[in-house]
Every structure is written in C-alpha cells, then in structure tokens.
Amino acid sequence: MKMDSKFSYVPQFLQWVLNVLLTLLALVLSVFLVRETYTIYQLFFTSDGPPPIELLESILNFFLYFEFIALIIKYFEARFHFPLRYLIYIGITAIVRLIIVDHKNPMDTILYSGAILIMVVTLFIADPRKKSGG
User: What total number of domains does the chain contain?
Assistant: First the structure.
C-alpha cells in the first residue's frame, strides 16, 4: 500500500502536463486556422479567380484544423476523454482531403472510399444516441 500512495501524484502530474500541452496545441492550431482563413480569402479575391483544387484543399485544411480544435474542446468538456466519433470525423475529413489532392490512381481512390465507408459504418454502430430495439 505504501508504494501506491508514494506514486499517487504521478497520474495527476501527467494529466496536468497533458492538459497544458493540449492547450498549447489548441493555440497553435488556432493560429493555423486563422492563416488558412486568410489563404482562402486570398484565393477568392485573386484577379483570375480561385484555382478550384487549391481552394478545395484550403477549405478542407480549414475544417481539419477546426475539427482538431473542436476535439480538444470536447476533451475538456468530457472531463479528459476523447470521444470516438470525433476522431472518426477527423479521419473521414482527412481521407476526403487525400482523395481530392491525390486522385491519380483509381485503385487508391476506391480503397480510400472503402475506408470512408468503414468509418461511416463504425459511426453508425458506435452511436450512443441510437435507440435500442424493444
């Protein structure tokens, strides 16, 4: 028993370190989010119009930053727990971005689409809000 009480501060200290680092990460991601917003603004108001692929890539990057910041917020709201569905949302957005940016190989695109389908099915299965039959 003495050993347990001797090191009881370790998880609390590590939790504190994690919270501080996640807060710093959220601040850095916020800076990147503002930078991406400025990039989207520049793409929209160029004289020859925005290149569609670059604009779409910037918008998806914006949503990735936004989702990571939302995930960190949910982590603190859920009392230091990452909800699974937010991680899946981020994965889906990242794969959609990958399909848009790198769509030269049709087989890769089909595999990426299959991965999105698996994640959507996982969301459906793991949804705690769905009603149980009965």
Answer: 1
* Domain extent for 29: 22-126
What's the pTM? 0.73
Residues in contact with 97: Cβ distance below 8 Å, sequence separation at least 6, in sequence order: 57, 60, 61, 64
- CB under 8 Å to 99, separation ≥6 — which residues? 109, 112, 113
Task: Judge whether 87 lies within some domain.
Answer: yes
Question: Residue 57's pLDDT is what?
Answer: 84
Residue 26 has pLDDT above 70, yes or no: yes
Contacts of 68 (CB under 8 A, 6+ apart): 25, 29, 90
Report the distance separating Cα 86 and Cα 15, nearest Å. 21
Which pair of structure tokens corresponds to residue 8? 């009881």
